[in-house]
Write a sequence for this structure.
């Protein structure tokens, strides 16, 4: 409340020291008053208009906060989450059929988190400006609220301890990444790739077809991660192909991009689930439904990534390519060493937007009958103990919080990456 | 000048126009341009250009904007493709074959008006990229050579910085060092001081003068008449896609033969 109540000062009260004669010493940063009363008076109740706005906004915010608090802590019946179905939300209803132990799953999660930590650590740059305190608090605080909310639904201490452990692993990974000696750093891409494959192996018990039994949050994350990491190279290759001067390459890339962008993702998912079968003989061994969905999401997202990267490629001045040519560099080296690093750096904001939207697009899997995070809600609500008892808001509020936590974390991590790489500055 | 183009036999002639096809410097030609035309669509940017540059010669090309000066030197290392005619660099004729083009580009260092340093690499990486990727030099060797070049252009302390942290003059000197790192036989300068603040022009011209005195073959497109007078072996004047007049700086500035040259010089001097 206090923080929100200070929003008007930016608009009105911020001029506080403008009215104060400039003293010889540095004027007080905001408001001339001292103490809580002074600050309040100068920032929130400066004049009549200011006071009315403060009271009005204060009332609205108070109302929303009271209602939310009342719902979350008193009226909401969270038993639809914690009383049994939590496992469904997290890993789906058929996870046990795979025979994968939770130890194995957590080992996989830890490996993935370690890779994430090393990745962020590698991006650490001593010269980049430190984050503002507010940004730092938001980056840690936002996801923390989500995680605490999820953990509050568990009825044992183990998940909390394991999650805290994952936080520790993330920190260790970050330190490893920062201190990596140059020799290892040059091969860090391979290390991250190996860790990612190891994580995927552990999570699926080294049997990829197991993911057909996944559901809930686990399925959402696996599909989104696969979609992001596969559609990125597809998009980069297609963007380059679209600028290629070879005869057949460009029309093919344009055809792919425009075809995919011209149809909704849902129709692609339907194609992948039901139409593909007709293209193969009945006894053909085609990949499982989730693999087909991953392929379709990759194709879909790849077309959008291609356009984003093409924009980045166009932002690299022609003089850069000429300078590379004048040095006698090969076209491949010019692309790899000069054009792509600059183009991708310029594409980061739009790319993250695309990947956040991909994460949310995964919820469309519900339409082809896959029970990812959103789809699992129907499964839970169909259980006899919850069916037709008005548990819908609680279930969707819970799932929504998880989505928000994921998307917000991605957006913040991207913001940090941008500052570190100095996007927008040269 | 077209009436003189086929007349290479008169190489010893005192006519200033014929001087375009006589190599200066040591007299041994390193760049030979014969009958080169360049069209951009319907617009003819170069009209039947003949030019010979000798080893260790400094040729300064001047002329009004749009006269084809930049296009000419950009054709030499195939940043622009010439429409007709032949261009021979160090005994290799420029064809459309990419390997042939790259061979010639290795021998021609180029410095651009807008520096075109790679903003995502340090100064040192900018300079070593070419030697390491094209000449396949080991990293340590390339970096040592780069440091020597930075000493030469007098900014060794900037090696670890990024181009964005340098002044325009410093950036252009890095660009010169980057071109030199490929150990080229010819250096092409495309208006190297036009994008600089006035107080930085001198440091770049000084670096270029040092280079000229070390015996480098140079073609310099510039508007710096002082530089042309002091450093050039020959000055070429271009207008509307043609080489109007070529001569030694003394002849050129004190006793121009062509009306267009006189008019141009009267406008800028």
């Amino acid at each position: 409340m206090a923080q929100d109540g200070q929003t008007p000062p930016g608009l009105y009260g911020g001029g506080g020291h403008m009215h104060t004669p400039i003293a010889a010493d540095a004027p007080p940063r905001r408001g001339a008053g001292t103490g809580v009363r002074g600050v309040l008076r100068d920032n929130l109740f400066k004049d009549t208009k200011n006071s009315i706005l403060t009271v009005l906004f204060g009332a609205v915010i108070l109302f929303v906060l009271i209602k939310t608090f009342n719902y979350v802590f008193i009226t909401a019946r969270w038993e639809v989450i914690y009383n049994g179905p939590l496992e469904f939300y997290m890993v789906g209803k058929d996870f046990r059929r795979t025979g994968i132990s939770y130890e194995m799953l957590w080992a996989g999660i830890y490996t993935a988190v370690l890779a994430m930590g090393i990745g962020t650590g590698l991006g650490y740059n001593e010269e980049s400006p430190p984050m503002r305190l507010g940004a730092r608090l938001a980056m840690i605080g936002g996801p923390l609220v989500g995680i605490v909310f999820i953990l509050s639904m568990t009825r044992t201490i183990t998940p909390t301890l394991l999650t805290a452990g994952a936080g520790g692993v993330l920190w260790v990974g970050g330190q490893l990444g920062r201190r990596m000696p140059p020799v290892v750093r040059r091969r860090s891409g391979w290390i991250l790739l190996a860790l990612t494959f190891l994580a995927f192996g552990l999570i699926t018990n080294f049997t990829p077809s197991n993911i057909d039994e996944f559901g809930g949050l686990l399925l959402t994350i696996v599909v989104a991660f696969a979609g992001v990491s596969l559609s990125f190279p597809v998009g980069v290759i297609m963007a380059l192909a679209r600028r290629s001067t070879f005869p057949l390459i460009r029309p093919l890339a344009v055809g792919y991009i425009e075809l995919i962008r011209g149809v909704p993702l849902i129709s692609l998912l339907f194609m992948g689930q039901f139409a593909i079968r007709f293209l193969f003989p009945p006894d053909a061994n085609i990949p499982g439904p989730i693999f087909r969905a991953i392929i379709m999401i990759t194709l879909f997202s790849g077309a959008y990534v291609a356009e984003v990267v093409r924009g980045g490629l166009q932002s690299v001045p022609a003089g850069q390519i000429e300078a590379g040519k004048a040095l006698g560099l090969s076209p491949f080296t010019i692309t790899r060493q000069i054009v792509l690093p600059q183009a991708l750096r310029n594409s980061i904001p739009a790319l993250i937007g695309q990947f956040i939207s991909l994460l949310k697009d995964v919820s469309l899997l519900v339409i082809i009958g896959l029970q990812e995070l959103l789809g699992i809600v129907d499964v839970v609500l169909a259980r006899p103990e919850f069916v037709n008892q008005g548990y819908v808001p609680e279930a969707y509020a819970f799932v929504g919080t998880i989505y928000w936590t994921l998307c917000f974390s991605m957006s913040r991590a991207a913001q940090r990456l941008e500052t570190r790489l100095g996007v927008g500055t040269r | 000048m077209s009436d003189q183009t086929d007349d290479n036999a008169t190489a010893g002639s005192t006519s200033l126009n014929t001087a375009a096809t006589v190599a200066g410097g040591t007299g041994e030609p390193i760049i030979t341009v014969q009958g080169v035309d360049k069209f951009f669509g319907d617009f003819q940017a170069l009209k039947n250009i003949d030019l010979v540059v000798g080893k260790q010669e400094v040729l300064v090309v001047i002329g009004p904007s749009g006269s084809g000066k930049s296009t000419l030197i950009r054709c030499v290392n195939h940043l622009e493709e010439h429409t007709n005619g032949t261009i021979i660099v160090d005994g290799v004729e420029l064809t459309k074959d990419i390997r042939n083009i790259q061979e010639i580009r290795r021998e021609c260092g180029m410095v651009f008006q807008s520096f075109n340093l790679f903003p995502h690499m340090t100064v040192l990486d900018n300079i070593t990229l070419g030697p390491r990727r094209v000449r396949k030099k080991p990293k340590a060797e390339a970096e040592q050579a780069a440091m020597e070049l930075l000493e030469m252009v007098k900014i060794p302390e900037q090696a670890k910085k990024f181009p964005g942290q340098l002044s325009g003059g410093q950036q252009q000197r890095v660009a010169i060092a980057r071109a030199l790192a490929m150990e080229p036989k010819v250096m092409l300068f495309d208006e190297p001081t036009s994008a600089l603040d006035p107080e930085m022009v001198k440091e770049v011209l000084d670096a270029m003068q040092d280079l000229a005195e070390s015996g480098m073959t140079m073609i310099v497109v510039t508007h710096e008449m002082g530089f042309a007078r002091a450093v050039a072996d020959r000055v070429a004047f271009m207008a509307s896609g043609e080489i109007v007049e070529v001569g030694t700086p003394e002849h050129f500035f004190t006793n121009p033969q062509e009306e267009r040259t006189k008019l141009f010089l009267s406008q800028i001097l």
